[in-house]
Write a structure and sequence with these properties.
alpha/beta, 5-stranded parallel beta sheet, 4 helices, 5 strands, 23% strand, globular
């Protein structure tokens, strides 16, 4: 079973990390996209064999498009919907 975890702030990252399993997807949204800049956090997730993504519009709104590491995927709103439909459930972390 795969889970889409949406994370909208850095304050909820610790709790989210504890619940991530191999095959899950983490989508950083809103101010959560700043977590993509923290290589230590994203490395911890990638070692668990999860997919880490950022919402493109939120990255652009914060002027971070040139700072997102290449191992993190960018996802449009349409892509967000597709992720929601292809995972077994979605958990939002606020």
């Amino acid at each position: 079973m795969s889970i889409l975890h949406t994370v909208n702030s850095s304050g909820s990252l610790t709790s989210c990390h504890e619940c991530i399993d191999s095959g899950d997807i983490i989508l950083l949204i809103q101010d959560g996209v700043y977590a993509a800049l923290d290589g230590h956090l994203t490395e911890r997730w990638l070692t668990k064999e999860v997919t880490v993504c950022v919402l493109t519009d939120d990255v652009v709104a914060r002027g971070l498009q040139d700072r997102i590491p290449v191992n993190i995927q960018t996802v449009s709103f349409d892509g967000f919907v597709k992720l929601s439909c292809t995972t077994d459930k979605t958990v939002s972390w606020f």
